[in-house]
Specification:
The protein is an alpha/beta fold. It is 58% helix and 8% strand.
Protein backbone atom coordinates (compact mmCIF):
# COMPACT_ATOMS: atom_id res chain seq x y z
CA UNK A 1 0.00 0.00 0.00
CA UNK A 2 1.35 3.44 -0.93
CA UNK A 3 2.10 6.08 1.72
CA UNK A 4 -0.78 8.23 0.48
CA UNK A 5 -3.22 5.30 0.44
CA UNK A 6 -2.14 4.29 3.95
CA UNK A 7 -2.75 7.84 5.15
CA UNK A 8 -6.29 7.67 3.76
CA UNK A 9 -6.97 4.30 5.42
CA UNK A 10 -5.55 5.50 8.77
CA UNK A 11 -7.71 8.65 8.73
CA UNK A 12 -10.88 7.05 7.30
CA UNK A 13 -12.58 6.17 10.64
CA UNK A 14 -13.17 9.87 11.24
CA UNK A 15 -14.35 10.72 7.74
CA UNK A 16 -17.81 12.09 6.98
CA UNK A 17 -19.87 10.53 4.17
CA UNK A 18 -18.55 13.00 1.59
CA UNK A 19 -14.97 12.47 2.78
CA UNK A 20 -15.37 8.69 2.41
CA UNK A 21 -16.62 9.22 -1.14
CA UNK A 22 -13.48 11.19 -2.00
CA UNK A 23 -11.27 8.63 -0.23
CA UNK A 24 -12.78 5.74 -2.20
CA UNK A 25 -12.33 7.65 -5.45
CA UNK A 26 -8.65 8.35 -4.80
CA UNK A 27 -7.94 4.76 -3.74
CA UNK A 28 -9.40 3.52 -7.03
CA UNK A 29 -8.11 6.25 -9.39
CA UNK A 30 -4.89 7.52 -7.86
CA UNK A 31 -2.70 7.26 -10.98
CA UNK A 32 -5.36 8.65 -13.31
CA UNK A 33 -5.93 11.80 -11.19
CA UNK A 34 -2.28 12.58 -10.48
CA UNK A 35 -2.12 15.70 -12.66
CA UNK A 36 -5.79 16.72 -12.63
CA UNK A 37 -6.82 20.19 -11.49
CA UNK A 38 -8.89 20.76 -8.36
CA UNK A 39 -11.95 21.46 -10.50
CA UNK A 40 -11.45 18.25 -12.54
CA UNK A 41 -11.15 16.12 -9.41
CA UNK A 42 -14.23 17.67 -7.80
CA UNK A 43 -16.21 17.24 -11.03
CA UNK A 44 -15.18 13.60 -11.41
CA UNK A 45 -16.22 12.78 -7.85
CA UNK A 46 -19.34 14.94 -7.84
CA UNK A 47 -18.45 17.13 -4.86
CA UNK A 48 -17.51 20.77 -4.44
CA UNK A 49 -13.94 22.04 -4.68
CA UNK A 50 -14.23 23.17 -1.06
CA UNK A 51 -14.93 19.59 0.03
CA UNK A 52 -11.81 18.32 -1.78
CA UNK A 53 -9.70 21.01 -0.08
CA UNK A 54 -11.19 20.04 3.27
CA UNK A 55 -10.31 16.41 2.51
CA UNK A 56 -6.69 17.37 1.83
CA UNK A 57 -6.51 19.18 5.16
CA UNK A 58 -8.05 16.18 6.95
CA UNK A 59 -5.04 14.21 5.70
CA UNK A 60 -2.63 16.78 7.13
CA UNK A 61 -1.84 18.80 4.00
CA UNK A 62 -2.11 22.58 3.84
CA UNK A 63 -4.43 22.29 0.85
CA UNK A 64 -5.08 20.60 -2.49
CA UNK A 65 -1.82 21.77 -4.10
CA UNK A 66 0.38 20.21 -1.42
CA UNK A 67 -1.63 16.99 -1.52
CA UNK A 68 -1.35 16.80 -5.31
CA UNK A 69 2.43 17.33 -5.20
CA UNK A 70 2.75 14.51 -2.66
CA UNK A 71 0.73 12.21 -4.92
CA UNK A 72 2.77 13.19 -7.99
CA UNK A 73 6.06 12.51 -6.22
CA UNK A 74 4.81 9.12 -5.09
CA UNK A 75 3.48 8.07 -8.49
CA UNK A 76 6.58 9.28 -10.33
CA UNK A 77 8.81 7.34 -7.94
CA UNK A 78 7.05 4.06 -8.69
CA UNK A 79 9.24 1.49 -10.37
CA UNK A 80 7.84 0.29 -13.68
CA UNK A 81 7.72 -3.42 -14.58
CA UNK A 82 10.61 -3.09 -17.08
CA UNK A 83 12.68 -1.31 -14.43
CA UNK A 84 11.88 -4.02 -11.89
CA UNK A 85 13.01 -6.62 -14.42
CA UNK A 86 16.26 -4.71 -15.05
CA UNK A 87 16.86 -4.58 -11.32
CA UNK A 88 16.40 -8.33 -11.04
CA UNK A 89 18.75 -8.97 -13.95
CA UNK A 90 21.39 -6.68 -12.46
CA UNK A 91 21.19 -8.47 -9.11
CA UNK A 92 21.64 -11.82 -10.86
CA UNK A 93 24.99 -10.57 -12.27
CA UNK A 94 26.30 -10.26 -8.72
CA UNK A 95 28.48 -13.30 -7.75
CA UNK A 96 26.13 -13.85 -4.81
CA UNK A 97 23.06 -12.73 -6.74
CA UNK A 98 21.35 -16.10 -7.14
CA UNK A 99 21.68 -17.02 -3.49
CA UNK A 100 20.58 -13.57 -2.34
CA UNK A 101 17.61 -13.60 -4.72
CA UNK A 102 16.52 -17.05 -3.52
CA UNK A 103 16.62 -16.05 0.14
CA UNK A 104 14.96 -12.69 -0.48
CA UNK A 105 12.17 -14.26 -2.53
CA UNK A 106 11.42 -16.99 0.01
CA UNK A 107 11.58 -14.55 2.93
CA UNK A 108 9.22 -12.13 1.18
CA UNK A 109 6.64 -14.87 0.68
CA UNK A 110 6.93 -15.98 4.32
CA UNK A 111 6.52 -12.37 5.46
CA UNK A 112 3.45 -12.00 3.22
CA UNK A 113 1.83 -15.06 4.81
CA UNK A 114 2.67 -13.86 8.34
CA UNK A 115 1.31 -10.36 7.69
CA UNK A 116 -1.84 -11.80 6.10
CA UNK A 117 -2.38 -14.12 9.07
CA UNK A 118 -2.19 -11.15 11.43
CA UNK A 119 -4.98 -9.41 9.47
CA UNK A 120 -7.41 -12.33 9.39
CA UNK A 121 -10.50 -12.39 11.60
CA UNK A 122 -11.36 -15.93 12.73
CA UNK A 123 -15.05 -15.09 13.04
CA UNK A 124 -15.19 -13.88 9.42
CA UNK A 125 -13.20 -16.94 8.32
CA UNK A 126 -15.72 -19.18 10.08
CA UNK A 127 -18.60 -17.42 8.33
CA UNK A 128 -16.91 -17.91 4.96
CA UNK A 129 -16.41 -21.63 5.55
CA UNK A 130 -20.02 -22.05 6.67
CA UNK A 131 -21.34 -20.28 3.57
CA UNK A 132 -19.11 -22.36 1.30
CA UNK A 133 -20.44 -25.56 2.87
CA UNK A 134 -24.12 -24.51 2.84
CA UNK A 135 -24.18 -22.99 -0.64
CA UNK A 136 -26.14 -24.79 -3.33
CA UNK A 137 -23.51 -23.76 -5.89
CA UNK A 138 -20.04 -22.28 -5.47
CA UNK A 139 -18.67 -20.16 -8.33
CA UNK A 140 -14.99 -19.25 -8.62
CA UNK A 141 -13.99 -16.06 -10.43
CA UNK A 142 -10.58 -14.69 -11.32
CA UNK A 143 -9.39 -12.80 -14.40
CA UNK A 144 -5.90 -12.57 -15.90
CA UNK A 145 -3.32 -13.34 -13.19
CA UNK A 146 -6.07 -14.18 -10.69
CA UNK A 147 -7.41 -16.95 -12.94
CA UNK A 148 -4.68 -19.29 -11.68
CA UNK A 149 -5.96 -18.80 -8.11
CA UNK A 150 -9.55 -19.59 -9.16
CA UNK A 151 -8.30 -22.74 -10.94
CA UNK A 152 -6.29 -23.82 -7.90
CA UNK A 153 -9.27 -23.44 -5.57
CA UNK A 154 -11.44 -25.28 -8.09
CA UNK A 155 -9.02 -28.23 -7.99
CA UNK A 156 -9.19 -28.33 -4.18
CA UNK A 157 -12.80 -27.43 -3.43
CA UNK A 158 -14.17 -29.49 -6.33
CA UNK A 159 -12.87 -32.63 -4.62
CA UNK A 160 -14.75 -31.83 -1.43
CA UNK A 161 -18.25 -30.88 -2.53
CA UNK A 162 -20.47 -31.02 -5.62
CA UNK A 163 -21.62 -28.04 -7.73
CA UNK A 164 -18.37 -26.11 -7.82
CA UNK A 165 -18.10 -24.03 -11.02
CA UNK A 166 -15.14 -22.21 -12.52
CA UNK A 167 -16.21 -19.07 -14.40
CA UNK A 168 -14.23 -19.41 -17.62
CA UNK A 169 -12.71 -16.25 -19.07
CA UNK A 170 -10.95 -17.79 -22.06
CA UNK A 171 -14.11 -18.62 -24.03
CA UNK A 172 -16.23 -15.81 -22.56
CA UNK A 173 -18.79 -18.38 -21.41
CA UNK A 174 -20.58 -16.01 -19.11
CA UNK A 175 -23.22 -15.15 -18.11
CA UNK A 176 -24.32 -18.55 -19.52
CA UNK A 177 -22.12 -20.38 -17.00
CA UNK A 178 -23.87 -18.52 -14.17
CA UNK A 179 -27.46 -18.75 -15.35
CA UNK A 180 -29.81 -19.67 -12.52
CA UNK A 181 -27.52 -18.43 -9.74
CA UNK A 182 -29.19 -16.78 -6.77
CA UNK A 183 -29.24 -16.09 -3.06
CA UNK A 184 -28.49 -19.72 -2.13
CA UNK A 185 -25.17 -19.56 -4.01
CA UNK A 186 -21.68 -18.23 -3.25
CA UNK A 187 -19.08 -16.72 -5.57
CA UNK A 188 -15.45 -16.63 -4.41
CA UNK A 189 -13.73 -13.79 -6.25
CA UNK A 190 -9.99 -13.23 -6.64
CA UNK A 191 -9.30 -9.66 -7.71
CA UNK A 192 -6.34 -7.37 -7.14
CA UNK A 193 -5.58 -3.83 -8.33
CA UNK A 194 -5.80 -3.08 -11.17
CA UNK A 195 -9.30 -4.65 -11.04
CA UNK A 196 -10.44 -5.83 -14.47
CA UNK A 197 -13.57 -4.29 -15.93
CA UNK A 198 -14.88 -7.77 -16.76
CA UNK A 199 -14.65 -8.74 -13.08
CA UNK A 200 -16.62 -5.64 -12.09
CA UNK A 201 -19.28 -6.37 -14.72
CA UNK A 202 -19.71 -9.93 -13.45
CA UNK A 203 -19.85 -8.74 -9.83
CA UNK A 204 -22.61 -6.30 -10.77
CA UNK A 205 -24.52 -9.17 -12.39
CA UNK A 206 -24.06 -11.48 -9.38
CA UNK A 207 -24.97 -8.78 -6.88
CA UNK A 208 -28.31 -8.17 -8.62
CA UNK A 209 -29.07 -11.86 -8.12
CA UNK A 210 -28.18 -11.68 -4.42
CA UNK A 211 -25.30 -14.15 -4.71
CA UNK A 212 -23.06 -14.08 -1.62
CA UNK A 213 -19.68 -12.61 -2.63
CA UNK A 214 -16.54 -13.78 -0.80
CA UNK A 215 -13.69 -11.60 -2.02
CA UNK A 216 -9.97 -12.29 -1.74
CA UNK A 217 -8.02 -9.14 -2.58
CA UNK A 218 -5.01 -7.14 -1.41
CA UNK A 219 -6.46 -4.06 0.29
CA UNK A 220 -9.71 -2.40 1.20
CA UNK A 221 -11.09 -0.52 -1.79
CA UNK A 222 -14.30 0.74 -3.31
CA UNK A 223 -14.62 -2.59 -5.17
CA UNK A 224 -14.48 -4.67 -1.98
CA UNK A 225 -16.77 -2.35 -0.05
CA UNK A 226 -19.33 -2.19 -2.84
CA UNK A 227 -19.58 -5.87 -3.73
CA UNK A 228 -18.11 -8.11 -1.01
CA UNK A 229 -20.24 -9.70 1.69
CA UNK A 230 -17.07 -11.14 3.21
CA UNK A 231 -13.59 -9.85 2.34
CA UNK A 232 -10.06 -11.08 3.06
CA UNK A 233 -7.05 -8.83 2.42
CA UNK A 234 -3.85 -10.66 1.50
CA UNK A 235 -0.36 -9.18 1.38
CA UNK A 236 1.05 -9.68 -2.13
CA UNK A 237 4.39 -7.82 -2.01
CA UNK A 238 7.08 -9.25 -4.25
CA UNK A 239 10.69 -8.75 -5.26
CA UNK A 240 9.76 -9.93 -8.74
CA UNK A 241 8.10 -8.11 -11.65
CA UNK A 242 4.65 -9.32 -10.59
CA UNK A 243 2.85 -9.68 -7.27
CA UNK A 244 3.31 -12.73 -5.08
CA UNK A 245 0.36 -15.12 -4.69
CA UNK A 246 1.84 -17.06 -1.77
CA UNK A 247 -0.57 -15.59 0.81
CA UNK A 248 -3.74 -16.15 -1.31
CA UNK A 249 -2.63 -19.75 -1.90
CA UNK A 250 -2.16 -20.25 1.85
CA UNK A 251 -5.63 -18.82 2.48
CA UNK A 252 -7.15 -21.18 -0.12
CA UNK A 253 -5.44 -24.10 1.59
CA UNK A 254 -6.99 -23.12 4.91
CA UNK A 255 -10.50 -22.55 3.54
CA UNK A 256 -10.57 -25.90 1.75
CA UNK A 257 -9.12 -27.76 4.73
CA UNK A 258 -11.67 -26.20 7.09
CA UNK A 259 -14.48 -26.93 4.62
CA UNK A 260 -13.38 -30.58 4.37
CA UNK A 261 -13.43 -31.03 8.13
CA UNK A 262 -16.73 -29.24 8.71
CA UNK A 263 -18.49 -30.85 5.74
CA UNK A 264 -17.79 -34.30 7.18
CA UNK A 265 -19.71 -37.04 5.38
CA UNK A 266 -20.42 -34.90 2.31
CA UNK A 267 -16.72 -34.21 1.77
CA UNK A 268 -15.80 -37.85 2.31
CA UNK A 269 -18.49 -39.06 -0.11
CA UNK A 270 -17.37 -36.60 -2.79
CA UNK A 271 -13.72 -37.59 -2.37
CA UNK A 272 -14.58 -41.29 -2.64
CA UNK A 273 -16.57 -40.71 -5.83
CA UNK A 274 -13.71 -38.69 -7.29
CA UNK A 275 -11.13 -41.32 -6.35
CA UNK A 276 -13.26 -44.08 -7.87
CA UNK A 277 -13.18 -42.28 -11.21
CA UNK A 278 -9.49 -41.34 -11.03
CA UNK A 279 -8.37 -44.85 -10.16
CA UNK A 280 -10.47 -46.31 -12.93
CA UNK A 281 -9.44 -43.98 -15.72
CA UNK A 282 -6.44 -41.81 -14.84
CA UNK A 283 -4.21 -43.04 -12.03
CA UNK A 284 -2.52 -46.37 -11.46
CA UNK A 285 -4.08 -48.29 -8.57
CA UNK A 286 -0.62 -49.05 -7.19
CA UNK A 287 0.30 -45.35 -6.94
CA UNK A 288 -2.95 -44.10 -5.45
CA UNK A 289 -3.32 -43.54 -1.72
CA UNK A 290 -6.56 -43.00 0.12
CA UNK A 291 -7.60 -39.38 0.59
CA UNK A 292 -10.81 -40.39 2.42
CA UNK A 293 -8.79 -42.32 5.00
CA UNK A 294 -6.59 -39.28 5.54
CA UNK A 295 -9.68 -37.11 6.04
CA UNK A 296 -11.09 -39.53 8.59
CA UNK A 297 -7.83 -39.45 10.55
CA UNK A 298 -7.92 -35.64 10.65
CA UNK A 299 -11.50 -35.70 11.92
CA UNK A 300 -10.57 -38.13 14.69
CA UNK A 301 -7.78 -35.81 15.83
Amino acid sequence: MSVFSKKIVDCSPGFSKSMKTIADFYLENLDAMTFSTLEEVAGSIGVSTTTVIRFARELGYTGYTQMQKAIQAEVLSKVSLPERLDSLQNSSNDPEGDNHLLQASMQRDMDNISETLARLDETVLGSAVDRIIRAENVYLLGMRGSFSLACYMMSRLGQLRPNVHLIESSGLFFPESMNGCGETDVCIVFTFPRHSKTTIDILEWLKKRKVCIIMITSESSEVSRRYADLCFNCVIKSISVKNSIAAPIALINYLTAAAAIKAGDTAESTIRDTEEFLIGGIYSRQLTFSFPDQLSEREKS
